Amino acid sequence: MKISFKYISYFFLFILGISMTLTSCTDDLNVTPKDDDEFLSETFFQDPASYKQVLAKLYAGLYVGGNDGDGQADIAGLSGDFSSYLRLLFVTQEFTTDEAIIAWADGTLPTLNTQTWSPQNEFLYGTYSRASYHISLANEFLRQTTDEKLTARGVDANLKTEIATFRAEARFLRAFSYVNLMDLFGNVPITTEADPVGFFYPVQKSRAEVFAFVESELKDLDSSLPNARSNEYGRIDKVAAKFLLAQIYLNSKVYTGTERNNEVGTLCTEIINSGYTFANVPYAYLFSADNDKNGAQNEVIFPIVSDGNAIRATGGGMSFILHASIGGSMDAASRGMDGGWQGIRTRKEFVALFPDVTATADKRGTFYTDGQSLDINNVGTFTDGYAVTKYINKKSDGSPAQRTDIPDTDFPVFRISDAYLMYAEAAVRGASTANIGTAVGYINQIRTRAQASTISAANLNLDFILAERGRELFWECHRRTDLIRFGKFTGGSKIWQWKGGTMSGTATESYRDLMPIPAKTIQANPTLKQNPGY
After folding, report:
1. Which of 130, 290, 351, 461 is most buried, judged by most C-beta within 10 A?
2. Which region, left, alpha or beta, applies to residue 294 given φ > 0 means left and ψ of -120 to 50 means alpha?
3. Under a CB-based contact definition with an 8 Å cutoff, are residues 316 and 87 in contact?
4. Three-class secondary structure of residue 301 per DSSP
5. pTM assigned to the model
6. Strands (E) located in 195-334
7. Position 207 confidence tier, pLDDT thresholds 50, 70, 90
């Protein structure tokens, strides 16, 4: 996939609100973006605007895949579309669970539907490589922005202050990638800007060591990231660091063997009182094309920004999620899109979490059933399984987005309602820093917005929390992690169609709670040890 440098530059401008003219941008649509060597060269950094451009590349990489000037993917062996970070997270966090299944038979993709993957799975390799690639970019940016280098280049004091914020954001994005690696693959190497540039084998660390590194980074960033809601939309602030820290504490028992629920309660209280607010708008507004301005933006702490005119990535991020979830008798135009790719549906066991399939008793139950069967007799048939209409490329008032081929809908990575749910879970798990009565109030805010019935303290148990997280956060890349934390991802305590490779579903091996270290990654670094079972 070759992306015009003009559009990449416009994406940088859009996502970061830059008003200056980029010296390397022309009106020629055939001018392609600079590759990584150019972006991170000493010559490039002579331009004061370059620092924000490289930070923009770190953010843009969450959505797009290959975006180097040679028109090739920026990770060897992966097409640009398939190396989109958001797309890969969706594939690994959703297709492996009861929330989603995909009809396509590309390579080893079907094994993710059935929990039968192996170290040769190219989508796991892509996810591992994409996260590692983002870490390497962040590390190089940090190397290029030390006080010594900035002073040597004659950078003035005002720009130095701004770059200090950029550095904090780069460290957060690096921590985000480490959390994804830790969550999916467990024991992975840690590299930072202090490591040498060039060929060497980074040392594999235990999951607990990766956890400790991320924890230390996120705590430290509280003093250097901008205050809540003071940064430009699309960029993170210190509340995002608190949120990611709360997430790893919530999963600490899985990652380290030690529960940290008290810390979850404390952090979630701080997040909830930070200045972000629960959006009192219809649930559908959070996932529409104007969710950056229709009130939903008040709830979203960390979005991955999408823009139909600025982003020319037809198969990455939200373009993939929306296109692939349209098929059968669905009218693509009613979804604001130019067509459907007949791919993603949900499974019957997930549908059963809702009181009905018409979004009557719970507005979050957004299923398309016309011509669709509830049972998935054939994974490769789109009309087997109910379709999902959670995301839409139309504005909340029904008016059209900018384009129909690439959506404007932003993806909500972190939002306040998840902080409500994390707080409630910490309370149920016995945290002394969380109160059951307060938790019930938070849950009822969520359910009232969805026009679902409210609950009492008697209803608030772990089974309810897991189900409510599914209802509120489905298709937001949480389900695999949630199911593992509740002990229901592998094994036989929770079965769904095609789990284990049979239509009725079957128990799977517990070692699959961890993904394998990709075979290609071990070939590149033979010091790495494979996860047990693989």
Report:
1. 130
2. alpha
3. yes
4. strand
5. 0.93
6. 300-304
7. very high
